[in-house]
Amino acid sequence: MKLTLRVWRQKNAGADGAMSTYEVDGISQDMSFLEMLDTLNEELILKGEDPVAFDHDCREGICGACSLVINGDAHGPERTTTCQLHMRSFEDGDTIDVEPWRASAFPVVKDLVVDRSAFDRIIQAGGYITAPTGAAPEAHATPVPKPDADFAFEHAECIGCGACVAACPNGSAMLFTSAKVNHLNVLPQGAPERETRVLDMVGQMDAEGFGGCTLTGECATACPKGIPLPSIAAMNKEWLRANRKAAKR
Amino acid sequence: MNNFAEYATGEPVVDTKAPEGPVAERWDKRRFEAKLVNPANRRKHTVIVVGTGLAGGSAGATLAEQGYHVVQFCFQDSPRRAHSIAAQGGINAAKNYRNDGDSIHRLFYDTVKGGDFRARESNVHRLAQISVEIIDQCVAQGVPFAREYGGLLDTRSFGGVQVSRTFYARGQTGQQLLLGAYQALSRQIAAGNVELHARTEMLDLIVVDGRARGIVARDLITGKIDTYFADAVVLASGGYGNVFYLSTNAMNSNATAIWRAHRRGAYFANPCFTQIHPTCIPRTGDHQSKLTLMSESLRNDGRIWVPKAKGDTRPANEIPEDERDYYLERIYPSFGNLVPRDIASRAAKNVCDEGRGVGPGGQGVYLDFADAIRRMGRAKVEEKYGNLFDMYERITAENPYEVPMRIYPAVHYTMGGLWVDYDLQTTIPGLFAIGEANFSDHGANRLGASALMQGLADGYFVLPSTINDYLARTSFTEAVGPEHPVVQEVLAETEDRLNLLLSVDGDRTPDSFHRELGELMWEFCGMARTETGLRKALERIPQIREEFWRRIKVPGTGEEFNQSLEKANRIVDYLELAELMCLDALHRSESCGGHFREESQTADGEAERKDEEFSYAAAWEFTDTGASPVLHKEELTFEYVHPTQRSYA
Predict the structure, then answer these.
(1) Cα–Cα distance measured from residue A80 to residue B75, given in angstroms and rounded to the nearest whole number
(2) How far B508 CA sits from the closest chain A CA (Å)?
(3) For B497-528, what is each residue's pLDDT tens digit?
(4) Among A72, B397, B445, B590, which has the highest number of CB atoms less than 10 A from its own CB?
(5) Catalytic: B264?
(6) CATH assignment of A117-248, among 1.10.1060.10, 3.40.50.360, 3.40.50.20, 1.10.10.10
């Protein structure tokens, strides 16, 4: 396959960026999208040009590092991570636009690499259960009903890639935040910190500059792990409940 | 003639700090004998932790909970992305919830035997003891393990053991355990007890007066190289499987932290012990950047075969039954398709070497579910393996319900690593190594669902106990800062190395060298090794290294985000580590576990151990680049599990 790539190039956080056009040839349908970019980069290095910077690591869809907007879609046309997208999803002769996540809370580091540390700070604000090592009771002391365990797992699958934010017209992080709130709040082990968790995490999310949620649903459509849209409603309920409880005190 | 292979043998390692006495009491004894640090004094001690995977994440969180000041590093943009996240299968624990005869002693026994009698009994027993605490700890953190309808934890059997002791969270156990550790670490970061440096890569170790006192690390965004100081340094930087270029490891997993520590004096043990996993998706061409594992559970119902005739290029479905060779069932009638990982991998290599491999380049064998679908019905197969079949189809565009899967072995895990004593301390006082970065518990072959167990045992429980002893017994009166001459020297060496990489301006990319080295290692130090092959590799590696420093091309500068520079610098270390791996494989002229020397096999082609000669861990001491290292042997004694030859026929 022969393709035309239009790639966002930006030297660093402070520099202006622009789309640059590259031609790549000899692309196999079996290549992953990132292997196609590897091919481009090998050529650029030999030409003495700066290769395109992009985040990637496990290349099997679980670490959450890869983060490209391809032809306007977060992670491209298939519902998966960029690393699991293969070139057979494209046609010979296609022009493909490749951009970084776009959100004010995710500033560009270089080219297609963005800074997602805001997600880490949301987790630091309350996305954990306080259980110092050594203090744990016997694992079977607290049975967890299977439906609750399954609900927790479904939300715990989030890989923190940020596609939800990139896909959202408001740059909102509601799906990411709600996934962690719901994972921990449904479990009996998470109950003691149930209220502070949701209040603190939502507070941090707002402080980081993520936009508000207008329920467009783009986040859940882009999510490679299928975190469901009702996750947001469930977090809103938790948040209202926590505020009501705080007001009563 | 290459003289790297003419190594000297130094003093044996005699003191491993493992206490004497009944094996079941040794860990308690060691914990009691270890000196403690007064809680009020812990804040005064800084501990550096490199890596945030299962071992590093859990260690950082636990040390901070104890009151130490932790400074932690990861090269990823977030601690949550460490490669532990990709582990699929599960985590072993001797809980005996099934009442099926499991016990700490049985897990201990299985692990020593599975490691083909090349692990230290004291360590393995401790691992089995701690396994039960790990499950408690993770459940308390909210790790969503699979549960049964009664609300209790589900388990399954894994990797051919006869008890059901593997706890799991669908096919994402590593992810869930890692997020548990990451969240515990996040709590300590928010509390100000852990100072986290993400996108910061360790490039060297600072050793002052014989003790580890800090590291040199590069901020990957700004390119700034800085020094960091501590009273102890913990390496939790993972394994070195990426020496092979193609592996199931993440692209950025690398050996730099452990190799630089080795160069500064830490012994490197059993580097040739690498695990090749039999069920991975074959490569499709030269563009291949990494390999993807398919869960081993597929071998429970899939049948493995190749055509009987060489060079048979007909599609699988057109090859009649009597022209197929179900070679595992033929060679190992009693275990069939369920033989252990190393045996299945070698058998696949053999039939492909005979020219009977399938798929592009003939590097693949069929894993066929047609019989399973006929027997159980498609719905049942879908229920059991649906997610794996989807994953396979996404990568290969072939529907495994209709055509057989193609699989081929790939490098998956490294049992070797920095030599550590019972306290997980390396031969450099104050330098500890935990998780896959050390060599301690798996011997010559790791059992399924044991890597997660070891990472978390080291990080949550072992290191936080043993490091106290070192900190309590050592006086830290002399402050080490950036002005110290040793520090200046290490910093200058690092800067010079990166500047040299940038200044060569040759005509070959970092990847081209990495790929060349990887192919060489795969051919001569992969699934089957021979003296001739290893000698060939030992001759070739210095040539590649010489060419690397003459022809490498790294664009850009060191004062910016520069992924080519990161890669090139990691390859510098692979080019030295590869040589040590080949030497270790050459010197160990026996077969054991994942290390198969063709010269040492039984009449029916099975691995033959030579206990009289090789019942030791080989700990190598660095001398100089390209110069032969010194071998120190740690004799292994087996008081509880007596060595036997494995048989699966």
Answers:
(1) 24
(2) 7
(3) 999 999 999 999 999 999 999 999 999 999 99
(4) B445
(5) no
(6) 1.10.1060.10
